[in-house]
Amino acid sequence: MSSAPRVSVLVPCYNEVGTVRELWAQVRAQFAALGVAGEVVFVDDGSTDGTREVLRELAAEDPATQVLLLRRNLGKAAALDVGFRATRGDFVLTMDADLQDDPAEMPRFIEALESFDVVGGWKAVRHDPVEKTLPSKLFNATVRKVTGVQLHDMNCGYKGYRRAVVDELRLWGELHRYIPVLTTARGFTLGELAVTHHARRSGVSKYGWERYLRGLLDLFTVVYITRYRSRPLHFLGTWALAFKLLGLLLLLLVCFTHNLALGVLSGVLLACAGSWWAVGLAAEGGHAAAYTSLPDYPVAERLNG
Fold this sequence. Notes:
Elements: E1 7-13, H1 20-34, E2 38-44, H2 51-61, E3 65-69, H3 76-86, E4 91-94, H4 106-112, E5 118-122, H5 130-147, E6 159-162, H6 163-168, H7 179-185, E7 190-194, H8 210-227, H9 232-257, H10 260-290
Helix pairs in contact: 5-8, 9-10
């Protein structure tokens, strides 16, 4: 393998046979215009339309093009995680394979990465139907409110990262939607660029309405792992304490009212409180046992160490 490139462009693919070659050509043209050494890393997520064959051709034509073929469709988060591990550049840009993201924006991302650790794209003018744009706006507003991360477009596929971010970032499930939140929680700085968004030229969207339900469920996961990963009892114990106080209050009322229903409800709440405490303690024990295998706490700089 040749020396490490300055810029890596990571492209997850799923049934985009009509666009991958042109995208590849446009990215390479940007490398040439910028005068930088670059690589393209395609991760095929189980395509069945001939995309894999085109990617094999590209790899044969260009040694600076890596192709990773997943055994089956595992989702965008898995494709990105595999791809991040394969990239070698100081800067890593991600973009979708459908040519709705414009490779001509690459110089702006690289310039912005001189100032920020992560740069998110913002499709300020979006060429998608209202059934996609409206839920997306509601989703982004909800995430901003819950997490405090002020980004217009959390899930835009066009992003840029410094090498240090990629080395620490781990994705699973469908957590790719929350990369800005996950990286901010690690202490990385976050910027945003308004980017050109083209209408889809071929293929079809791979996502439906169900992604917003899954995204909402993942939001609970993200809040938990970014705020309570190292102190699960603080989260579970808070609920346990609330249930216990409410249960004791109802039990006190039972002493005066002799209401059987209140007595049963009090017992249920006290039992739930005990269960939450037990689960919280078990989670603390599990965290302690797994501590050595968890990612290190983010040290930004070390002097004379």
